[in-house]
Amino acid sequence: LSLRGDLRQALQAGEFRLQYQPLVRLDTGEITGVEALIRWDSPVRGPVPPADFIPIAEESGLIVEIGQWVLETSAAQAAAWRQVRPELTLNVNVSGHQLMHPRFAADVTRALAVAGLPSSAMTLELTESVLMSDPQAAVASLAGLRELGVRLSIDDFGTGYSSLAYLRELPVDELKIDRAFIARAELTGEDLALVRTIVDLGHILGLRVVAEGIENAAQLDALRRLGCCYGQGYHLCRPTDPADLAGLLRRGS
Ligand code: G
Ligand code: G
Ligand code: MN
Ligand code: NA
Fold first, then answer.
1. Cα(142)–Cα(100) distance, integer angstroms
2. pLDDT tens digits for range 81-91
3. Is the Cβ–Cβ distance between 146 and 152 less than 8 Å?
4. CA 78, CA 49: separation in Å to the nearest integer?
5. Distance 189 CA to ligand 1 centre (A)
6. Of 193, 99, 174, 192, whose CA–CA distance to 137 is shortest?
7. Which residue from 25, 31, 104, 178 puts its CA 20 to 30 A from 239's CA?
8. Maximum distance among all Cα pairs of the chain, rounded to whole angstroms
9. Any alpha helices (H) in 19-62, and if so which ranges?
10. Could you tell me which residue ranges the EAL domain spans (predicted)?
């Protein structure tokens, strides 16, 4: 069977699951939110990384149904965690095909309603390249989503060639610095200056800035010194199964 055929089957058979990676306040270490990350353990293929199957799901249009499953499952999980941690927020990755689908806003609304999750507790992550592929359509779609009260985030920032003029017009709340910028060893010299510039740019535009891919203490220290308020990465916490994250959330960080 093709990967495409397998994906449809996988959705029906319940082979997808979600892990969650914490978003952490860098000054206190507090977990303020989680990002849902899809996983597929295929009984025939073994674990298939999302980078391999999300593009196929996009081409076939199945991403709309997979995305709906992600929205509903993660919203329900976040609502349950908020019983213990009332301020916890949820980030969900959204692909371009999903964003442009006429049903998308209704899907988001339904997932929130069924889970009993307030819209302000959900952030939708869109990559810079998706937002840039059809800027006018993206802005219109984002504006509609924002009316629902959900927050919007630019994922993988710095890799998608947005112009500063366009960035200013985008109705978004958060900017996630692509991990390629953070990964450069200890963040010194030009690399550090570049990250400082992105952090400052985000703050000037009034955005919440999240550094992705923090892998060591030196990077964490550097980001703290730059005034970057939030981060994610293996050094803080790996993507984690929901059962294991529950304990961390109860403890507070
Ligand atoms: O978790 P991992 O690093 O393997 O993710 C690889 C890529 O897959 C990332 O770009 C991430 O944004 C994307 N991804 C993970 N989960 C989802 C999801 O639920 N929906 C979409 N559209 N992309 C996802
Ligand atoms: O594109 P997006 O930011 O959604 O991708 C998130 C992916 O990044 C997750 O699938 C996760 O597995 C991966 N990731 C999270 N933290 C780190 C990290 O510290 N280093 C690396 N290399 N990948 C990470
Ligand atoms: Mn993401
Ligand atoms: Na990213």
1. 10
2. 999 999 999 99
3. yes
4. 23
5. 31
6. 99
7. 104
8. 52
9. 50-60
10. 1-253
Q: Compute the distance from residue 92 Cα to the ligand 3 centre, in Å.
A: 7
pLDDT in tens, 52-70: 999 999 999 999 999 999 9
Upper half-sphere CA count for residue 199 (Cβ side, 13 Å): 21
Distance in angstroms (rounded) separating the CA atoms of residues 173 and 140: 16
Q: What is the pTM of this model?
A: 0.97
Whether the complex's predicted ipTM is more than 0.95 is answered with yes
CA pair distance 23, 248, nearest whole angstrom = 13
Pocket of ligand 2 (CB under 6 A): 21, 37, 93, 155-156, 179, 212-215, 232-234, 239
Contact 9, 16 (CB under 8 A): no
Give the confidence band of 78 by pLDDT, cuts at 50, 70, 90.
very high
Instruction: Look up tokens 């499953």; give the residue.
Output: 69
Distance, in Å, from the CA atom of 126 to the CA atom of 13, rounded to the nearest integer, reads: 28
SS3 for 104-163 is HHHHHHHHHHHHCCCHHHEEEEEEHHHHHHCHHHHHHHHHHHHHHCCEEEEEEECCCCCC
Q: Which of these, 110, 174, 114, 95, lies nearest to 148 by C-alpha position? A: 110
